[in-house]
Each structure stands twice: as C-alpha cells, then as structure tokens.
Design goal:
Layout lengths: L1 E5 L4 H12 L5 E4 L10 H6 L7 E4 L2 E4 L1 H11 L9 H38 L2 H9 L4 H13 L4 H20 L14 H15 L4 H4 L3 H12 L1 H6 L6 H37 L1
Helix pairs in contact: 1-3, 1-8, 4-6, 4-7, 4-8, 4-12, 7-12
Length: about 280
C-alpha cells in the first residue's frame, strides 16, 4: 500500500501525482496544512526531516524528495516506462529533471511566493511568521525566503527565477525543434512529468505566455501535456474555482513587472552576445 503526504496545491507533489496516475497506482492521501505549520510536527519530521512535502510511504518506509520519489516509482513499478529508451534516453530525461532541481524549483517558489504566499504570510501573526522563518533551516533558503517576503517581485531572487525560466524555455524550444512531441523524443518521460507542474503554475498565474508567446513549439508541447489524463487528475481536477481565480488574480498583479524584468534580462543577454562578437 502506498501513502502520499501532500499539501494543497503543492507543485512538487503534483509531479508525484502525475507519475502515480501514469502508472495507474492506488494510494492513500494524507494532507499536511503548511500554513498551520503541520510539516514541523515531530511525528512528520521523523518521516521527512526537511519538513516539506511530498513524502511517499511504501511498505512502511518513507521516500522523500519528489524527483527521487518519481524515480522510485519507476524502479518499483516499471510499467509503463517513464524513462527514455536506452542509457542515452534515460540520461536525457534525467537532464530535464535536473533542471527542475537546480533552478526551476526555486524560480517557481520565488515567483509563486511573491504573487500569492507573501500576502498570506503578511496575514499571519508575528509568532506564526517567526515559526515559518525559524524552520526554513537552510541559510541560503532563508535568505531567499526573507528577501522575497520583504521585497516581493523586486527581490533579486525573483529576477534570478525569471532568468531561469527564460533559459529553460529556450532549451525546451531547441530540444523540440526536430519535431519530437515530448522532451525526450517520442515517449512521454519523467522529464516531462517533472516539468509540467512548474509550467502549470506559471499558466495558472497568467504569466506563462510572457515566456512562450513566441515559442510555438513549447506551446504545442504544453497543449499536449494539458490533454493527458494524468494532468487532469493530478492538477486540473484538484484545483477549486477559487484556487484558479486566486492564482490568476495574484499573478495578474505582478504581470507587468515580471514581463518588464524578463525583457530586461533578454536585452542584457543580447547585449552580451554583441560584446562577445566584437
């Protein structure tokens, strides 16, 4: 029996939910209320010392870290395959997962936080906020958290996130240039699984077109992703109308500022290329 600890509208959990849906696996769900600080309950910390979601329980043993959970599911329940054919195909799929873990996760967290969760934090009592900041743990993550809380979209970490997405979508556009339907080729893989929730968050925040409006290949990939039943069951059907309206409204408040910062980054990259060529 599988048990999945999740939280409402958790992007990292959505990766696991897509993998579970693709493999048609049954599982129980236990919801952790992050804004009630339930992730710091000692009983939960025994399962996941980082105090984050998701956590998967299999045969009584916890598996943590969403990318590793997806790999665990692939190894434990190998049909249908969610990795590419052969060693090269598997490595290519893992590269996209690596991109999430090395920048896109933080980028989405900072953009989402500045758009939505910053206001929720402001509504907390000072004592509740202090618990959240105290339990962040990692100094680098704490710096990001505090900067985004204090400065919102003007935090340098939000700018880094905007740049990370620009580099990601360019890489996706390049990979899809040979006509392949998915990032790893003909087969839908964990590379697609691990990216879809992060692209979805930008879409629900009404920000996605800022990056992909002039990238039709990425648009077609996104349309195919949204059409998969696993996307519907893992993401779309789990959101309430209020969830969608809230994300769209909060993202809309930042839309102009994010578009401007993305344009500044792109212009800076172009200037760098000119200087390098001189």
């Amino acid at each position: 029996m599988l048990t999945l600890y999740t939280a409402r509208n958790s992007i990292c959990t959505q990766k696991v939910l897509i993998a579970l849906a693709e493999k048609k696996l049954d599982y129980a769900v236990k919801v952790i209320d992050l804004f009630a600080n339930e992730q710091y309950d000692p009983a939960y910390l025994k399962l996941n010392p980082k105090g984050v979601v998701p956590t998967l329980i299999h045969d009584g043993k916890p598996v943590i870290e969403s990318t590793l959970i997806c790999e665990f599911l692939e190894e434990t329940f190998p049909r249908p395959h969610l990795l590419g054919s052969g060693a090269h195909g598997r490595a290519e799929a893992r590269l996209w997962s690596k991109a999430v873990d090395e920048g896109i996760f933080e980028a989405t967290r900072e953009i989402s936080f500045s758009a939505m969760f910053r206001e929720r934090m402001r509504a907390m009592t000072p004592e509740e906020r202090a618990i959240r900041f105290k339990n962040v743990g990692d100094p680098e993550r704490s710096a990001r958290f505090l900067s985004t809380y204090e400065h919102g979209v003007d935090s340098p970490y939000v700018f880094y996130g905007i740049a990370a997405f620009e580099k990601l979508f360019k890489a996706m556009d390049d990979a899809l240039a040979d006509g392949r339907p998915w990032l790893g080729g003909e087969r839908f893989t964990l590379g697609d699984v691990n990216l879809i929730p992060f692209v979805a968050r930008l879409a629900y925040l009404d920000l996605l077109d800022i990056w992909i409006d002039e990238r039709p290949r990425v648009q077609h990939w996104w349309a195919r992703a949204m059409a998969r039943p696993s996307f519907m069951s893992a993401i779309a059907e789990r959101l309430t109308p209020e969830d969608e309206q809230s994300m769209q409204a909060h993202g809309g408040k930042l839309r102009d500022a994010i578009a401007k910062k993305r344009a500044e980054y792109v212009a800076g990259q172009g200037a760098g290329k000119v200087l390098a060529a001189e």
